[in-house]
Specification:
heterodimer; A: 491 residues; alpha/beta; Rossmann fold; 2 domains; six-stranded mixed beta sheet; 17 helices; 20 strands; globular; B: 334 residues; mainly alpha; 72% helix; 1% strand; translocase (chain A); ABC_transporter-like_ATP-bd (chain A); ATP-binding (chain A)
């Protein structure tokens, strides 16, 4: 009997089908990957099973019994828990308080029995072999450890079915391996894990079975042992895509960007590298290894950094972002929602955001120019938006990322700094972004790309610098870089 | 999952269009309904004299609320405007009075002098607050709360706690004059509104304000000088508070040290009723103007109906909260 079985699940929002036919079956003691691009219906599927949305039709069985949830609490009571992509712990409470939130053990007169709560929480964490103290403040933990606390919390609710929505999107490679170990433990306990991720290499590493959704409908399912990566991608995207990484660029002999002795107190030290025109220079490193801090220094976001930056052989002084932009540097930041986009503004407004002075030489905005620029970028990058005046928050992740790229390409940059350019972007949109990056480099642009996805760094980069503890652990040529060497150098 | 999933542009459906219309113009519709109801229930309401009176009473709050809109759009708040009204009012008045005890030496000066002084006082107060908020990262609530108290104190010190009476007619004209039969404060409000609308919707600076309020981090990484924008909105709010202070003392004929108390609350109310989000980045100065008019019309209508002003305060409170509740509901439906 399966832990969870779903058939014919339907849901529409305002006449638009978000899910037409959700079908799914989860076996005990297994990890089941739920795959699909953005808009495939995964989130809707999850939110129905979590009791957040009511379904329009379809059946759900838990251990063979038909169930219906009208609130997250009911789903949880029936043994379904979720580790959300963006965790929302209560930061200034302890781990134990977070785990037992709302069901704290009480003393005789109604006060909380902290001793009992802490020891219960500690036992839970120890049994799972998590290196976390129950009386620690939640805010003092890394994102990866917060996830582990969420897992412990799910188990404390006696959850048999645990959904994990993009759990590795905000944690590093080494922490991801810890998470996978925890997942193995859960598997051994006979729990079922539904794993949602855009990262196929992870899916192949930890999942036993897969189910693919596309355009709101079930496509196929089976054992992962029976498919290979191209076949799975084919199912997700619905068409043959050919090679995942098609490199069209060829580094020239000319140096576009040179960095000498870049450093910033307590962040990075002794960073030097050269990037040629037409080259894609990858930077790989774990979370906290100083990857993003390099870009902060290059783009004038870190007032304490020192070092020499040369563009086309000329030393430049960069004290704030507008200096960097004036020199033709563009920065696509790591987190498009936090630092890339103005989510309250339209697609058009966001595309123009970094070019406002250029589009208003006499202070007054040239609105026709703004509209034309937005139109040009939407066409160039195939941004799928109903209108350019629609809110950018209504776009899928991939299209939002293309808006950020459009914002910077509008400035015709000489140097493109990309920090995790495909995070949270589905397989189809990823390829388009790779093509955009390659085309730019092929046309003589200089690209520096940070990525924590090993496949991506290896597939895209002409050379890779590996970061460890705020320093460069070495620069590898494309021919000598492989997964082993990256992991070896970065840890 | 409400993303578009790449569907090509299709014509808006009827219900969708209706929803958008209400979202865009809901505040206008509410205002019109209010006006229609009052016109029907009281024949005096729609007379030229009464309309002129309502506009006149709205003008000071309107000017303050427009300045407040700039600040709130950047995720800020300006609690100091009421005190700045009093300070600018009394300092400018001291340059425009014939009273021997309250005047600065040489007063009364030609009318442009007190006007320049009043604006300068507003700009200075806004500049201090703006610098504290933008450079020292003090929350706007705290910084302007400080100015609320400090400016009131300065007002009392400057005038020895006494009013500045006997303002010259040229200065009083700001509050009592007419242009083509329209009261001058109303003309001033119209100009302030038009310029602000133009700045916010048509200029680079306007775009910067929305970007800083919508996402200051994204604005910074897009090369926008967030510090400077934050600073300038408080200067604008201060300057408009200075202007409002002069209108007020010109209307009353003397500058009172206790003028403008709690004016910041009416200004914030107008902004909020007008649909501007306190979270920043979303809102329009047109909404603010309507918001100020709604408050003015409501007070006037209740006066005409002979309802005590105490009840008006309760209704105003309900209106503010109700407007935001509707807004939240709309956002959830969207």
């Amino acid at each position: 009997m399966s832990l969870l079985k779903v058939e014919g699940l339907r849901k529409s929002f305002g006449g638009v089908h978000a899910l037409k036919n959700g079908q799914f079956e989860l076996a005990a003691g297994s990890v089941h990957a739920l795959c699909g691009g953005n808009g495939a219906g995964k989130s809707t599927f999850l939110s129905i099973l979590m009791g957040i949305h009511r379904r329009d039709g379809g059946k759900i069985w838990r251990n063979g019994e038909l169930v219906e949830f009208s609130s997250p609490a009911e789903a949880l009571a029936s043994g379904i828990a979720i580790i959300e992509q963006e965790l929302s712990p209560i930061p200034f409470m302890t781990v134990a308080e977070n785990i037992y939130l709302g069901r704290e053990p009480l003393k005789r007169f109604g006060g909380i029995d902290f001793r009992a709560m802490n020891s219960a929480a500690q036992k839970l964490l120890d049994d799972l072999e998590f290196d976390i103290r129950a009386d620690q403040q939640m805010a003092s933990l890394s994102v990866a450890k917060m996830q582990l606390v969420e897992i412990a919390k799910a188990l404390s609710h006696d959850a048999e079915v645990i959904f994990m929505d993009e759990p590795t999107s905000a944690i590093g490679e080494r922490e991801a391996q810890h998470l996978f170990a925890a997942i193995e433990t859960l598997k051994a306990l006979g729990r079922g894990i539904v794993y949602v991720s855009h990262r196929l290499s992870e899916i192949f590493q930890i999942a036993d079975a897969y189910t693919v959704f596309r355009d709101g409908a079930y496509v196929s399912s089976g054992n992962l042992a029976d498919v290979d990566r191209p076949a799975l991608i084919g199912m997700i995207v619905g068409r043959e895509l050919g090679e995942e990484y098609i490199k069209t660029n060829e580094p020239t002999a000319e140096i576009g960007l040179e960095v000498q002795q870049l450093q910033s107190p307590a962040k990075i030290a002794d960073i030097s590298f050269q990037v040629r025109k037409g080259e894609i220079f990858g930077i790989y490193g774990l979370m906290g290894s100083g990857r993003t801090e390099i870009f902060d220094s290059l783009f004038g976001l870190d007032p304490h950094s020192t070092g020499r930056i040369l563009l086309d052989g000329t030393a430049v002084k960069i004290g704030q972002p507008s200096d960097a932009m004036a020199e033709g540097i563009a920065l696509v930041t790591e987190d498009r929602k936090k630092t890339g986009l103005n989510l309250t503004d339209s697609v058009r407004g966001n595309i123009g955001l970094a070019s406002l002075p250029e589009m208003s030489p006499s202070f007054v905005m040239r609105r026709r120019e703004e509209a034309a620029a937005a139109k040009a970028m939407i066409e160039r990058f195939h941004i799928k938006a109903a209108r350019d005046t629609m809110a950018v928050s209504g776009l899928s992740g991939g299209n939002q990322q293309k808006v950020v790229l459009g914002k910077w390409f509008l400035r015709n940059p000489r140097v493109l700094l990309l920090d995790e350019p495909t995070r949270g972007v589905d397989v189809g949109a990823k390829r388009e972004i790779y093509r955009i990056i390659c085309d730019y480099a092929a046309a003589g642009g200089t690209v520096v790309m940070i990525s924590s996805e090993i496949d991506e760094v290896l597939g895209m980069s002409d050379r890779v610098m590996v970061m460890r503890g705020g320093r460069s652990a070495g620069i590898l040529e494309r021919t000598e870089a492989n997964a082993q060497s990256l992991v070896h150098l970065s840890t | 999952m409400s993303d578009v999933n790449g569907k090509p542009a299709e014509g808006l459906m009827g219900s969708e269009r209706r929803r958008l219309l209400i979202q865009e113009y809901g505040i206008f519709i509410a205002f019109l309904i209010l006006v229609v109801v009052l016109s029907v229930s009281n024949p005096y309401f729609l007379t030229a004299g009464n309309i002129s009176n309502v506009l006149l009473q709205t003008s000071i709050n309107g000017v303050l609320a427009i300045g407040m809109t700039f600040v709130i759009l950047t995720r800020g708040i300006d609690l100091s405007v009421g005190s700045v009204v009093a300070l600018a009012g009394i300092v400018s008045a001291s340059f425009a009075t014939t009273s021997a005890t309250a005047a600065v030496s040489g007063a009364p000066y030609p009318v442009f002098v007190p006007i320049a002084v009043g604006l300068a006082v507003g700009v200075a107060c806004g500049g201090v607050v703006g610098a504290i908020v933008s450079r020292f990262a003090v929350p706007a609530f705290v910084a302007t709360l400080g100015m609320l108290s400090a400016a009131r104190g300065l007002t009392l010190i400057y005038g020895n706690g006494r009013p500045v009476p006997a303002l010259v007619p040229e200065f009083r004209w700001i509050g009592t004059g007419n242009i083509l039969g329209i009261p001058l404060p109303v003309v001033i409000l119209a100009i302030v509104f038009a310029v602000s609308w133009w700045v916010l919707t048509r200029t680079r600076f306007g775009r910067y304000i929305y970007a800083v309020g919508g996402n200051p981090h994204a604005a910074k990484t897009s090369g926008i000088n967030v510090t400077r924008i934050r600073f300038s909105v408080y200067v604008i709010s201060g300057a408009l508070a200075g202007l409002a202070g002069m209108i007020l003392s010109a209307r009353t004929g003397s500058a009172l040290p206790q003028a403008g108390i709690a004016y910041e609350l009416d200004a914030i109310a107008a902004v909020v009723i007008g649909g501007t989000s306190l979270a920043g980045g979303v809102g329009r100065v047109t909404g603010t103007l309507i918001g100020a008019l709604i408050i003015g019309v409501m007070n006037n209508g209740l006066d005409l109906m002979g309802i005590q002003s105490y009840y008006q305060q309760i209704l105003k409170g309900a209106l503010i909260v109700g407007a935001v509740m509707l807004d939240q509901k709309r956002n959830q439906d969207a």
